[in-house]
């Protein structure tokens, strides 16, 4: 039995869950999420909790068991508290500006980069070097944050670029000049 898959997902107050076959609809104070799960997973509601059971012990079903339970838990967490990813921008002239809902990034290119937020994702610029991506869908928030980071990944020499808050960039030494061997 999957250690994660066998744990029930608690339904907090203010969250409404509808199970229609393999489609689960979760509605809460922050919004609504819908997802269709694999047909081998059996999703049941029992006294204020959701339980996930698998059809058999095949390798695929064992892998899907924990995944299905975690996706359900993320849906419930998303509609109650939401998810956020913090990004830090470092480098001379590198900055983020919010124009309406659109995010404009200056990352050392010849042109600014403009990003429209997808549905359910919002940007917050705390300072020109600190950016927050938030929303109710954990998968969408993580994907947008990863795309922003991919625009200018931090280099190992000067650590210039976009990184996750708290991410450690392993630094490399720069060029070591020649010592002693001077041409005459």
Keywords for this entry:
single chain; 184 residues; alpha+beta; 4-stranded antiparallel beta sheet; 3-stranded antiparallel beta sheet; 2 helices; 20% helix
Structural notes for this entry:
The chain is of the alpha+beta class. The chain has 2 helices and 13 strands, in the order ββββββαββββββαβ. The chain has a 4-stranded antiparallel sheet with strand order 11-12-7-13, with helices on one face. It is elongated. The protein starts with 8 loop residues before the first strand and ends in a 20-residue tail after the last strand. The mean pLDDT is 91.
Layout: helices, strands, pairs:
Layout: E1 9-10, E2 16-20, E3 23-28, E4 31-36, E5 41-46, E6 49-54, H1 59-80, E7 83-90, E8 95-99, E9 102-106, E10 113-115, E11 121-127, E12 130-135, H2 138-151, E13 161-164
Antiparallel strand pairs: 1-6, 2-3, 3-4, 5-6, 7-12, 7-13, 8-9, 9-10, 11-12
Total of helices: 2
Biggest pleated-sheet summary: 4 strands, antiparallel
Summarize model confidence as the mean pLDDT.
91
- The radius of gyration is 23 Å
- Stretches with pLDDT under 50, minimum 5 residues: none
Sheet with the most strands: spatial strand order: 11-12-7-13
Encode the helix/strand succession as letters: EEEEEEHEEEEEEHE
What percentage of amino acids are in beta strands?
35-45%
Termini separation comes to: 76 Å
Structural class: alpha+beta
How many strands appear in the DSSP assignment? 13
| Shape verdict | elongated
Share of helix, binned: 10-25%
């Amino acid at each position: 039995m999957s250690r994660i898959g066998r744990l029930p997902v608690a339904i907090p107050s203010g969250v409404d869950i509808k199970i229609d076959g393999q489609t689960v609809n979760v509605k809460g104070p922050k919004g609504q999420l819908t997802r269709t799960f694999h047909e081998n997973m059996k999703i049941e509601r029992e006294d204020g909790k959701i339980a996930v059971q698998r059809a058999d012990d095949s390798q695929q079903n064992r892998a899907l068991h924990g995944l299905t339970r975690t996706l359900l838990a993320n849906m419930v967490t998303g509609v109650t508290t939401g998810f956020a990813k913090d990004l830090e921008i470092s480098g001379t002239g590198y900055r983020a500006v919010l124009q309406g809902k659109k995010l404009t990034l200056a990352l050392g290119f010849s042109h600014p980069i403009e990003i429209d937020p997808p549905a359910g994702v919002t940007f917050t610029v705390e300072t020109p070097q600190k950016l927050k991506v938030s929303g109710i869908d954990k998968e969408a928030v993580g994907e947008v944050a990863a795309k922003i980071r991919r625009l200018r990944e931090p280099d190992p020499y000067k650590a210039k670029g976009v990184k996750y808050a708290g991410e450690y960039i392993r630094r490399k030494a720069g060029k070591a000049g020649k010592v002693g061997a001077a041409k005459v």
